[in-house]
Amino acid sequence: MTSLNIGLIGTGFMGKAHAIALRSVATAFPEVSAPVLDCLVDSDIDKAGRLAKAWGFARASDDWLAVCSDESIGIVDICTPNHLHKDMALAAIAAGKHVYCEKPLALNSADAKLICQAAAEAGVQTSMGFNYACSPLITLAREMIAAGELGEIFSFRGSYFEDYMASPEVPFSWRCLRSQGGAGALADLGTHLLNMAEYLLGPIADVFGALDTRHHQRRDPPSGEMRDVENEDIAQVLLCFERGISGSMEISRVATGRKCGLCFEISGSKGSLVFDQERMNEIRFYAAGDATGRQGFRTILAGPQHPDYSAFCPAPGHGLGINDLKVIEVRNLLRAIETGTPVDEDFANGYRVQLLVDAIEKSAEQQQWLKVSSLGLDA
Amino acid sequence: MTSLNIGLIGTGFMGKAHAIALRSVATAFPEVSAPVLDCLVDSDIDKAGRLAKAWGFARASDDWLAVCSDESIGIVDICTPNHLHKDMALAAIAAGKHVYCEKPLALNSADAKLICQAAAEAGVQTSMGFNYACSPLITLAREMIAAGELGEIFSFRGSYFEDYMASPEVPFSWRCLRSQGGAGALADLGTHLLNMAEYLLGPIADVFGALDTRHHQRRDPPSGEMRDVENEDIAQVLLCFERGISGSMEISRVATGRKCGLCFEISGSKGSLVFDQERMNEIRFYAAGDATGRQGFRTILAGPQHPDYSAFCPAPGHGLGINDLKVIEVRNLLRAIETGTPVDEDFANGYRVQLLVDAIEKSAEQQQWLKVSSLGLDA
Amino acid sequence: MTSLNIGLIGTGFMGKAHAIALRSVATAFPEVSAPVLDCLVDSDIDKAGRLAKAWGFARASDDWLAVCSDESIGIVDICTPNHLHKDMALAAIAAGKHVYCEKPLALNSADAKLICQAAAEAGVQTSMGFNYACSPLITLAREMIAAGELGEIFSFRGSYFEDYMASPEVPFSWRCLRSQGGAGALADLGTHLLNMAEYLLGPIADVFGALDTRHHQRRDPPSGEMRDVENEDIAQVLLCFERGISGSMEISRVATGRKCGLCFEISGSKGSLVFDQERMNEIRFYAAGDATGRQGFRTILAGPQHPDYSAFCPAPGHGLGINDLKVIEVRNLLRAIETGTPVDEDFANGYRVQLLVDAIEKSAEQQQWLKVSSLGLDA
Amino acid sequence: MTSLNIGLIGTGFMGKAHAIALRSVATAFPEVSAPVLDCLVDSDIDKAGRLAKAWGFARASDDWLAVCSDESIGIVDICTPNHLHKDMALAAIAAGKHVYCEKPLALNSADAKLICQAAAEAGVQTSMGFNYACSPLITLAREMIAAGELGEIFSFRGSYFEDYMASPEVPFSWRCLRSQGGAGALADLGTHLLNMAEYLLGPIADVFGALDTRHHQRRDPPSGEMRDVENEDIAQVLLCFERGISGSMEISRVATGRKCGLCFEISGSKGSLVFDQERMNEIRFYAAGDATGRQGFRTILAGPQHPDYSAFCPAPGHGLGINDLKVIEVRNLLRAIETGTPVDEDFANGYRVQLLVDAIEKSAEQQQWLKVSSLGLDA
Fold it and tell me: What's the ipTM?
C-alpha cells in the first residue's frame, strides 16, 4: 500500500503520543506501510513549527480547516480539546479523509451520531483513541471470554479512578465547562471504561446513574476568580448488558492516590479476570478448574504469546508502556484502511459510548433506570 | 468483676470461633475477667456433649430455651442459622441475659427492631458478631478519618466478594430460603459491609439497590430435586451517607476466586485508604501531603501501634487471624458489661444494618432511591 | 490420654503466645487432651502471680528449678532469654519432663548437642518453637515438593528481614551479647530460616557465611554509656543441600521497613513457590505446565484444603495469625507425647540449626566453605 | 547539532528495540537531533534489505566491516551475539565512530579493557545497552541515595531471575558456549545487575562467587545430539562495596516463572527501596521518618516528577515500557556526543562489569574472596 500523509491536529499530551506512535508503527509492525508525517497543526504557529521539526513532520500549520481538506493528506488525526472534535471530524470526513480522533468523539450523542453517519456515508475509515482496549492483555481477556474460558459470565465490576482534580487547588479549566468538556469524569475517564466494558462483554442495554460534584467551584487562573464547575467529579453507574448480566461502574477524577486506575473484575462460572491499568502488563486470572488446594489468582505477565506483544519485544515480562498501545491503535487504523475492514474501536463505538454517557446523565437526572435505546438515537 | 457463665448455642463455623475466643480472651486481655464456659447447646445432644468436653464447657444441652433462662447463665451467645436468632435473642433478653449474636440479627428490620427494643428495655448489654469492624487496622481507619487525616471525604467504594455459591453444583441450603436465610448475599455478606461503612463514615441516609440471582435453582440433597433459590446472588447498591457523600457497594456470593474479599476504598482531599480483608494485616494509605515524587500508597502492616494488636503480639507484621478478631469482639462485650457502656456494634447496629438491607431490597423492587428513614421503622 | 500439667517459664512475647496457645489448643483440635495450665514462672514473683491469674494458671512461682522437677508437672515450656535455655532444658529432662523450648535451643552447638542427647536418653518428647514451619501453607509447600509438583528442584533463595535493630537509637540489650544471645541476627532470625530450609529441602551439607555489624556500639540504658555490640546485624550465607542443590540466604535485623520478612523462593523444573511470612496466608505457586499464555504465579490463599487450617476456620481466605501457628505447634507436641512419635521440629532439629549457625560463623571467620559435618559434632 | 548517520548491526531482539528507539528519540526528546537511520546490517542480506525498508533505514548491508569504516556513518550500533562485539567495536573505534553496544562489552575483561582503552584514545563517545539503569525510577533511586534520603546505607540485596533456560527442552545455543556467550547467566543477566548495583552504590571492591549448572547438556538442533553446556545457569555472589557495605546477589536463567525479575532491596537507616523490573513503573519506598503507626512501604508510581518520564507522558501512572528505556539510552548517547560529556553507562562501565564477572568466576573457581583490583586489569 502507498504510505498515507498524516495531518495531526493538536500538540498536547495526546498529540505527542500520536506523533511517537505514527513514527514507530512500521518498525514495530513491518506489515503496514509507514505513514508520512506530513503536517502538524497547532493554533500557535510557532509552536507548530518548532514541534514539527522536532517530531519529524514535513511542515506546520495553524489552519486546521485547510489541512482537513488538503489534497495531499490521507489521514486527519484529531488530538484537540473535546469541543473541537465535531467540526474537525466533519470537515475531514467531508474531504474524504480517514479520521483518527481522541475520545470523546463529541460532546453529546446527537453530535456523535451525526459524525458517525457522515463517516459511514463517506466510506472513510475511522478510529477512536480509546488507548486501553487494544492492549495485549485486554485483547487476551476478550478472547478468553469469547472462548468460554470464564464459563457463564456472572458480573462485571469496573472503575476508573484518577486524582488529577482531587485537590481543590486544581484550577478551573475547559474540562469544567459543559460547552467545552461535555460531561466531567464520565467524558474524560468514563468513556474509556464504557468502551472497555462493551469491548469485552457486548452492548449495554440499561443504565442507572448517579453523579456527584465534590468541588463546586474552582479558581480561574486568568481572572483569579472562582467559577462554577459544570460537570461531575464522580459518576456511579449500575448497568445491564444485553447478554443479560448486571454490572457496576464508578468513575472519579478526585480519587486521591489513583493515577490511571482503570480496573475491572469479571466473574464467571469457570473463572475470573481482574485488571488494573496501573499494572497494564499484568492480568489476574482465576481458573476454577485448577486442582483443589492449588487454586488462586494467577498473575499473567504480558508476553509474546499474547496479541501484538511480540511486535515490541520477544521476551515476556519486559513490559509495554502506554505509548506502545497507541502504536497498536495506529496499526489497527492503517490495517483497516488497507483492508477496508473497520477497526474494533471506530466512530460507531465513539457514538455508542457517547450514547451511554448521555443515558447515564439523563438517568441520574431522572433518578430512574433508562434503556439506552430509549434515547431515540440508535443508528 | 465476677466471671460470667456463658451459654453458647450452635457448634458450627461461628460456634467454634466463639468457643476459641471465649477461652483465650482473658489471656490476650488480662484486664477482663475470663468468662466461664458453662453450657454448650446443640440440637444434637451427642454432638453437644462431645464438643462441650473438647472445647472445655462444663456441660451440654439440646434445650436452648432452658439455657436462655437458666439462672446460672450470664451471657447467651447465639451462633445458629439466621432464622433462629430472633426467638433465642428474645428469650435470652426476657431472662435478663446479656446477648451476643451472630449477624444478621434477624430476617427483617421489623424483627430486628423488636429485639433491639427489648434489649434496650431490659437494660442488658448486646453485641453483634460483625467480625471485621473491630480489626486493629479498621479501628485505625476510623480514627484516621475522625482525626481528619484523609481531609474532606469524597467517596466510599466497597465490595464483599466471595465465591462459596459460584458453582451451580453447590447444593440448595437454608441460605437459599427467605424464611430461613432472609436476603441472600446481602444478609450473609452485605451486613458486614454495611456495618463497616457506617462504622467508618456514619449513617447511610439513602440507598438505591439492584439484585441479581445467577443460579435460579439448586439441587436439594435430600430429595435430589431442583428447588428455587429465593434470594439474590449479587447485590449492587448506590448510597448517600448523611454526612453528604456518595458511595457504592457490590456484594456477591458468586465472585469466583474471592474467598473473603471485603474491600473498600475511601478517598479524601488529604488522603485515601484501601483495604482488603483477604490481607487483613495490611491497610493501604495514600498521604497527599507526602513530598512530590515520593507519594504512593503505603502498605501499613498491623502492629502494636494499632488498637488492640499488642494484646496478641508485641512485634509488628507478625499477623493476626480471623479468630483473633473474635477475641477482640468478646473483649468488647465483656468490657461493656463491666462498664455499662455499650459496644460499638451492639443490637442497635444489628437493627441499623437490617434496616439498610430491607431498604435496599425495597429500593430494588421499586427501582427508585429510598430514604432509609422512610421505612418508618426508625427507633 | 490424661491431660498433662504445664509449667511455663517466661512471660514475655513468647510466654504470652504459648499461654494463649496452650489454652485454646483443645478447642481447635478436639482430638488432643487439653493441657492443664498449672504453674507460671517468672523471676518476678508478683508478675508471675498477676499473670498466672489473668492467663488461667493455677499457680505461680519464681523458682524455675523447682518447677522443672515438680512431680505434678508433665511438660516444661521454656520461653526465657536464650542463655537460660540450656540449664532449664537439662533440668527438665533430668526430671523426665517433656520439654517445649523456644529457639535457639542453646548458645552453641556443643550445648545443643548435650541437651539433645540428654533428651534422647531420657526418652522424653521435645519441641522447638520454630513458629513458621508448621504453618498450613508451609506444610503444603513441603508436601508439594515431596510429591514432585515442582519437578527437579533448582535452587532455594531465602531471607529473613526485620528492622527491630535498624535504628542506632535501639538500646543495648542481652541480644547484643554473645554470652546471652549467642549469635545476632543468625540466632534470632536465621534459626527460623535455616530450619525452614531443611524442613522443605532436607539437610544442608555445606555453608559459606559472611557477617556484618552495622551498629558497633549501642547505648546501655542503665549506665547511659555506649557498649560494644558483640554479634552480627546481617548474615549472608551461600549453601549446598545434601540433595545437590545450591541455595542462598540473607538475614538482617536492620532491614528498615521489614517486620517479619521471612521469605523464600524455590525454583524447580515444573514449578516454583514464593513465600513471605508478612503475608502468611498466601503462597505463590507457578505451574510451568499451565497452558501457554495462561501461566502466572497463582496466589493461593490458605484454606481448609490445606493442612490444619480447618481446625481454625472452615472458610478459605479468612486468615490465620501468628498465634494460631503456636496452637498447631502445641498440638504437634501433645500428639507426639500421646503417640510416642517425635514432632518434625524437635530438639534434634534445634541442634541441627545450632550446628548450622556455628558452621556459618566459623566459615565467615575462616572465609571459606565449610562442611557442616566437619564441626565434629554430628549426633 | 547535525544529525548523525546510524549503522545498526544486528536485527534480533535488541536490533529491533534499537531501531524503534532511534526512530522515536527526537519526538520524545526534541532537544536532541534525530539520528538518521542510514544502514541496517545483517549477515543475511535479504533480511537486512527487507527490514531496512520496514524499519525506515535508507540502505542495507551484509558487510559490517565496511559499515564500521563507512565515512557517512557517525554512530555504529552493535546488537549482535556477544562474541562479535569485540571486533565490531574495535573496527568502529578505529574508524573514529561513536559506538553503542549491547552488553556484555566482550567475553572477558581483558578484551573489554582493550576496547575501552581504544575508545578512550580515539576520543569517541560510547554507550552500553544496560537498559534498566536509565529507567526513571532507577535514576530516582540513585538521586535519593545520593541525597541521603535512605540515610546510612546498610545493605544491598539483588537478584535477576528469568526462566528462559529453565526447561531441559530448551535447545543448545551459542549462549551455552564459552567461546560465544562467555559466562552464562552472569553474562546475560548478571551484567545488568552488577551495573545496576554500581550505578546506585558505587564500585564493588570484593566478591565471592558460586556457580551452578543445572542442565549439563542440551540437545543441539542441527545434529539432534546432546552437547555440553559450558557455563552456569545460576550464579550466587556475596560482595563488598568500596563504601564499606556488604551485598549479595543471585542470578538465574532457570528461575521458573520469572520473566524479567531484576530485583533489589536497599536498606538504610532512614529508609529502604525495593524494586522489581517486572513492575518497572513502581518502586517501593519505606520512610522510617513517617509518623508512628503510619509507616509502610509506599508504592511510588512513575510519573512526570521523575527523571525523563515526562518526555513520554505528562500523566503519572500511565506507564513506560522496556522500549521507552532504550529511547532514554539513545538520548543519553546523542547528548553525550553533542556535549562531549560521557554517558553514565559508557564502555568504562562495560569494562567494570566484565571485570566483576571475571572476578566472580575466578572467585568461584578458587572458592575464596577476591579483590576486584587483584585481577591486575584496572584501567
Answer: 0.96
